Amino acid sequence: MPLELAVFAALAAITVGASLGVVLVKDVFYDALLLGVALISVAGHFVLLHAELLAALQVLVYVGGVLILIVFAVMFMRSTVEGTDEEVGP
């Protein structure tokens, strides 16, 4: 029981820290990465509750789908804003 409590406390600290980082960090790319950390730690909570299917779905749907979509959108928008995709010719 003390090991489960220690793992729960560590996951809770990671979840709260990453969630605060999502709100406080100004860079959108780091926000997406911190959101991934928060969602993976929530999947860890599901594992502690013996809900392995929910943990797998959390990782596959949210981290694998939504977060990757956010990262690709941020990377695409950065490259178009900086003008690296478009070359102006004579």
Task: Indicate the percent of residues in helices.
Answer: over 70%
Q: State the CATH topology.
A: Four Helix Bundle (Hemerythrin (Met), subunit A)
- Quick one: how many beta strands? 0
Give the overall average pLDDT: 87
Rg is 17 Å
Instruction: Name the beta content range.
Output: under 5%
List the helices and strands and how they pair.
Blueprint: H1 2-24, H2 28-48, H3 52-82
Helix pairs in contact: 1-2, 2-3
Task: Tell me what you see in this structure.
The protein has helices at 2-24, 28-48, 52-82. The mean pLDDT is 87. It has 90 residues and is mostly helical. Helix 2 (28-48) runs antiparallel to helix 3. Helices cover 83% and strands 0% of the residues. It has three helices and no strands. The chain has one domain: Up-down Bundle (Four Helix Bundle (Hemerythrin (Met), subunit A)). 11% of the residues are buried. It is elongated. The longest helix has 31 residues, at 52-82.
Structural features:
elongated; 3 helices; 83% helix; 90 residues; Four Helix Bundle (Hemerythrin (Met), subunit A); mainly alpha
Brief write-up:
The protein has 90 residues and is mostly helical. Helix content is 83%, strand content 0%. The chain has one domain: NADH-ubiquinone/plastoquinone oxidoreductase chain 6, subunit NuoJ (Four Helix Bundle (Hemerythrin (Met), subunit A), Up-down Bundle), CATH 1.20.120.1200.
